[in-house]
Amino acid sequence: xxxxxxxxxxxxxxxxxxxxxxxxxxxxxxxxxxxxxxxxxxxxxxxxxxxxxxxxxxxxxxxxxxxxxxxxxxxxxxxxxxxx
Length: 84
What we know:
Blueprint: H1 7-33, H2 36-43, H3 46-57, H4 65-83
Helix pairs in contact: 2-4, 3-4
């Protein structure tokens, strides 16, 4: 049986697909109801979440942690300055 069709992998793929769909619908709703200038910077904070998850789960990404955290901090400060 191909690896992607195994039951435990297939259920994970289905769950990820459903969560991605919900996230996409939430993003479209945010763009529809909010102002573009506010929604876009807030949406880009996903980069910060990605950095934190990579540092947590991927040991190879733990090189240059200070630089990555500083970049994440700059993203957060920039978002706060745009929103306020």
